[in-house]
Design goal:
By secondary structure, this protein is mainly beta. The protein contains 1 helix and 6 strands. The strands form 2 sheets. A 4-stranded mixed sheet has the order 2-1-6-5, with helices on one face. A hairpin with a 6-residue loop joins strand 5 and strand 6. The model has no long low-confidence stretch (mean pLDDT 94).
Length: 113
């Protein structure tokens, strides 16, 4: 299966999910090179849009994201990576297990009957 890197100027979102719990841990971006490196190393490698270079999650923190499986969506423009977290398990640079810790106010929608 191929990934369509052309839709977003060479990048695709990469959703990282804990294989054991199903929790979404983080989202990053991949280009073709970082995707190939992820497959080669077995650890998630992203493309940094701000630094304009590849970076393997865990190279400085020790919290590597070891790939268990990878899938793409029906449009082939997003990647889902199920991972095992190595190290102390703190994935976010803020020191939390997941990057998704900031609640947003959401009105609960009523289902029409």
């Amino acid at each position: 299966m191929t990934i369509d890197f052309d839709k977003m100027d060479g990048l695709v979102p990469a959703v990282v999910q804990d294989d054991a719990t199903g929790d979404v841990l983080m989202v990053g971006f991949m280009n073709a090179e970082s995707y190939a490196r992820t497959l080669e190393l077995g650890c998630v490698t992203f493309y940094s849009r701000t630094r304009q270079k590849l970076w393997t999650k865990g190279e400085t923190s020790g919290n590597f994201l070891r790939v268990v499986s990878a899938a793409t969506d029906c449009d082939r423009d997003t990647v889902l990576l199920r991972v095992n977290v190595e190290g102390d398990g703190l994935v976010c640079h803020t020191g939390t297990r997941s990057c998704f810790t900031e609640p947003l106010p959401v009105k609960t929608a009523e289902v029409p009957r």
